[in-house]
Every structure is written in C-alpha cells, then in structure tokens.
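Bug #77: duplicate submission created two jobs. Keeping one. Sequence:
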Amino acid sequence: MKKWWSIGGLVLVTIIWGGGFTASDIALESMTPFQIMAVRFFLAAVLMGIISIRSLKGMKKEEIMAGTLMGIALFAAFALQIVGLQYTTPSKNAFLTALNVVIVPFIAFLILKKKVGPKGILGAVMSVIGVALLSLQGDLTLGLGDALTLLCAVGFAFQIFFTSEFVKKYRASVLNFVQMATAFMLSLVFMIFLKETRFQVTTDGWLGVLYLGVVSTTICYLIQTICQKYVDETKAAIILSMESVFGTLFSVIILHEVLTPRMIVGSLIILAAVIISNLAETEAPQKA
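Kept job's structure:
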C-alpha cells in the first residue's frame, strides 16, 4: 500500500512541476536565471528549515554530506537547464531533460551493479519516445543549448539516484533542508559572480517565482524524497517523466497552445511506460 501511495505522490509532483514550466516562462520575463534560482531555493530552504526545525537540532555529519550531494546535483541540473534554455527551444529542452529517465538506471548499474529488468528498460525507452513526440519539433541537431541540457539531464539523474539511496538511510526532512540550502548558496554565489544582483521584477514575475519556490520546490521535493523511500530510482524517474505530459496540458489550458494528435499519442505512451514499469514490480511476488 505504501508503494502505491508513493507512486500517487510522485504523480502529484509531476502535475505541480508541469505548472512550473508556465511559472518559469513568466518569471524569466523580468528575472535572470540565477535570480530565479536564488529566490526559489532561498524560499525552499527557509520553509524546509521551519518544517524540519526539530530534526535539525540533531543533524548528523552523514546527513549533511548526503544532503549536500543532493543539493549540488539539483543546482547543477537547474542551472544547466535554465541556461541551456536560452540557446535552444523549449521543446528540445524538455525532451533532452527527460533523458534522465534512461540515465538513472545506468548510474545505478555503474555504482551499485544494480541490474535493470527488461520491463524497466522498456518503460524508460517508451517514456523517452513519448516525450519526443510530445516535445520535439524541427531538426534534431545539437547546439550549445542542447549540449548544456544533456548535461542537465545527467544532473537530474544523479539527484534522483542520490535521493533514492540516501532517503533509505537518513531523515527526509534533514536531507531536504540541506539540499535546498546548498542549492541556494550555489545560486547566490553565481548570481553575485555574474553581477545579477539588481532586481527589477514585475508582480507576475514575483508570483511566478513564488510558485516555483513554495509549491514546485519546497512541497514537491519534500514529497519526492519521502515517496522515493518506497519506489526505486528507475521507476521514480519514469513516473517523473510525466511532468512533460502535464506541462503540455497546462500550456493548452493557460497559454492556449493547440493540442495536436502527436501530443496526445506522446502522452499516452508516457502513461503506458509508467504502468509497464510498475507492473514489473507487482508481478515479481507472484512468481516467487
């Protein structure tokens, strides 16, 4: 039962993240990438500190190190994604980011020698195909933005992998606070280094970054960390790829993007990938 509640929690995360694409677009109209990251992770660190204030009194060195690794991976992923977005199209950015679905099981294999079942591999491949149909337009050549986004996918893959491993050993509240604090400090350093300290933000920009910091970051990463205690990293990555489905849905509802047959097919393929990847786990006990 915990596993299915956790799967539901991860799906909820993808719905909220789907709305994050729209919020990011709004925020980018009056803020620089590292200004957005600094504010969103500052809000997340403060809120996570309030939520987990009792747990923080007894933080262990191992928990701090684990949360720091998660924070570095999270910062790298978001930084590369949002900078890469300035040099490529949003559709390519979304597709290439989703390649973390394929990267996660290979990280688990290389580091932990953890084998991936055929249904897990099939689910990962299907999810990438689905995101491609949902997002890609035009040619498939790789430019600077595409290369940065590929590295961003590696960052997200490591964040998912680290979360799955560390949440089984350490407290989720402490991990999340350290993760957000680390991402904030790194964002602040880059913002100052790039001399982006002057803020001229519109009301819509503040609302957008407020959504990103409170809902899309604090709430979502807390839910993700707790849920990944019961869902392995490969399945979690596949479920989280549904973000692109909900991102498209919100674009249609809020930004009035035209819904095409290709978008519908892509969404259905991703949904099928999630179901197949989780059937692999539920069938295992029956064969024993």
